[in-house]
Amino acid sequence: MVSLLGVAASSGLPSSFVLVYVVGFIAAVTIGSIAWYNSKRPPGWENKDKPDFIPTVKADDDTAS
Known about the structure:
Helix content: 40-55%
Distance between the termini: 49 Å
């Protein structure tokens, strides 16, 4: 993290600009991982358990037509 801020300072980018991108990337990876673990499993992964730290998300089965 410090090296990223050092590169940003030497290239003229504000450190807050780089920090927003780093935090956004980490958030995107985290949210994407939760969504992937809660989605349907690909062939061959149907019986695999999800990690304990991934929350269970209940789907809304009520669809208004």
